[in-house]
Design a protein that fits this description.
Belongs to the bacterial solute-binding protein 2 family. This protein is of the alpha/beta class. Helices cover 39% and strands 15% of the residues. It folds into two domains: 155 residues, Rossmann fold (3-Layer(aba) Sandwich), CATH 3.40.50; 136 residues, 3-Layer(aba) Sandwich (Rossmann fold), CATH 3.40.50.2300. The longest helix has 20 residues.
Length: 345
């Protein structure tokens, strides 16, 4: 096996911290609705499963509503179903406020708090309106907002590309448009590449609506840019729904290196099998779910959200790839959260 890449020690080490050591009392007998961006998106489904697990650990009833990537207005429909069901709280996974402003106002009028994990509130600079979420998960002290966290991920992808490709790297960026996660990932990546005057970035744009043709889009970009050696992808859903297939099926597959998203188990399998993925910025989406429950507990106690200790860690075929199974972060966040919640009783 090749030696780990130089200049990336901090990313190989990871940027995680411990979750909060203390929590307020856990309210009893709460009915929670969890709305994820869509079960087809691995980050969303895994975070929602983590939140469901955490809610059940503290004796809450949790109901999941599949946001279906907002097909047919599914996000708003899920929120309105929760309102009709008299939910005690709503947890929204990777859904931006701008797409659901009206139902969020309806939830507020009904006295139902709404907490976001991995989403962007309406007071985000890219939206410029009033905040409508009751609270949002704070990823960590290092990344106090989801935007700062996502920008850091983009910058880390740029660091990896430059460490591998040097000062003349040519890269195809799968640019996830129409959602703020993509906007900020793009911003971080371009900022990270900005001082590389001889590097070249080509765009392969994709939206929630065009995911079905992502493979063809990326295959065309690879054909049109025969000198490109790198592909960057913001999340594992886009890796699994076309990007890895385009790279693995390319006649130039041995010349292409793809860095993907959060390191979901199917993506790690692709890395192990040499099928179109070379590296990921491994994250625990389950932790984002637990952090969402912790934030709701604090909201129900009229407290502010606490930094969750979330981070990411470079995993590539040189270092950090487990022989089998899922990625596990270097912090036992479940034990930490459950201990804090139990101590508060």
């Amino acid at each position: 096996m090749a030696e780990p890449l130089t200049g990336l020690d901090a990313l190989y080490e990871g940027t995680f911290h411990a979750p909060p050591e203390e929590a307020p009392p856990v309210p009893e007998d709460q009915s929670l609705w969890i709305v994820n961006c869509g079960e087809v998106a691995t980050a969303c489904s895994t975070a929602a499963a983590g939140a469901t697990e955490a809610a059940e650990e503290i004796g809450w009833e949790a109901r999941l509503c599949d946001g279906e990537l907002n097909a047919g207005g599914a996000w708003a429909n899920c929120i309105r179903q929760a309102i009709a069901a008299n939910a005690d709280a709503l947890l929204l996974i990777a859904i931006d406020c701008g797409a659901i402003a009206q139902p969020l106002q309806e939830a507020a009028s009904a006295g139902i708090p709404t907490v976001s994990s991995l989403g962007y509130d309406c007071d985000d600079p890219e939206i410029g309106e009033e905040s409508l979420f009751t609270a949002s998960v704070i990823p960590s002290d290092d990344y106090p907002t989801t935007a700062e966290y996502t920008i850091a991920l983009g910058e880390a992808r740029a660091d990896w590309v430059r460490a591998v490709g040097g000062d003349e790297a040519e890269v195809i960026e799968v640019d996830f448009q129409g959602v703020l996660a993509g906007v900020y990932a793009h911003k971080g990546f371009t900022e990270g590449m900005s001082d590389c005057a001889s590097c070249t970035i080509h765009s392969a744009p994709v939206t929630n609506q065009s995911i079905g043709t992502l493979r063809q889009t990326l295959e065309s970009a690879i054909l049109q840019n025969p000198e490109a050696s790198f592909v960057t992808v913001t999340n594992d859903a886009l890796v699994l729904l076309g990007s890895s297939q385009a790279v693995a099926g390319s006649p130039r597959r041995n010349e292409l290196s793809l860095i993907g998203g959060e390191g979901a188990p199917p993506v790690l399998d692709l890395m192990r099998d040499g099928l179109g993925v070379s590296a990921v910025l491994a994250q625990s989406m389950t932790w984002f779910g637990y952090a969402g429950i912790d934030t709701i507990i604090r909201v129900l106690n009229d407290e502010d959200a606490a930094p969750a200790g979330l981070g990411f860690q470079l995993v590539d075929t040189q270092r950090g790839l487990p022989e089998s199974g899922p990625y596990e972060p270097p912090v036992d966040f479940k034990e930490a959260y459950l201990a804090a919640w139990a101590a508060a009783e």
